[in-house]
Amino acid sequence: MNWPQLLFGFKGRITRLYWWVTSLVVSVVAGMLTQSLQFWAREMGAGAIDTETGMFEPSGAFGIGVGVIALFNLWINFAVSVKRLHDRDRTGWWIAVVYLAIMVAIVLGVATLTQPEGQRAPLNAVAVAAVFAASCLMIWMFIEIGFLKGTQGSNRFGPDPLAAPQSDAKI
Predict the structure, then answer these.
(1) Separation of CA 22 from chain center
(2) Which of 80, 83, 76 is nearest to 12 (CA)?
(3) Left if phi > 0, otherwise alpha if psi is -120 to 50, otherwise beta: which for 60?
(4) First to last CA, the chain
(5) 170's torsion region: left (phi>0), alpha (psi -120 to 50) or beta?
(6) Could you report the per-residue pLDDT of 147-158, keeping only the tens digit for each?
(7) 0.90 exceeded by the pTM?
(8) Which uninterrupted H or E stretch holds 89?
(9) pLDDT beyond 80 at 167
(10) Do residues 20 and 93 make contact, with C-beta atoms less than 8 angstroms apart?
(11) What angle do CA 36, 72, 81 make, to 5 degrees?
């Protein structure tokens, strides 16, 4: 598999090692690029310090650059995770299920916190259950992608990435 297909494509299968190495390297590079952009934005005065968090927030082209880096990081992690799920003979749509559960938990948490103090009880239990369900799904997905061995032999998503390459030579 070539680099563009590994980083940006959603077809095929990859091993656990490829997933771990790609995920870690891409995350480290994205973090370094983001920190560099934030440093240069601060040096050039292109941003402001958030009064609530005390963190520097870049603006203008630097802010857009940070957003673009985040989107590339997200896309690449989606792509390699889908290929890992394919290696486990699972559909890549499981990633969407996990992220949907996370979004539901966040929305319910925000909805709970925006209610007056005495009226939070009904939503609070639902929000806690949603956070628990999303956490369980994230842990399951992490174990599925990062630790469990792929399907041996070919499956519906392609040939086994650990199999010896087939030779077209005839004897």
Answers:
(1) 12
(2) 83
(3) left
(4) 27
(5) beta
(6) 999 999 999 999
(7) no
(8) none
(9) no
(10) no
(11) 125
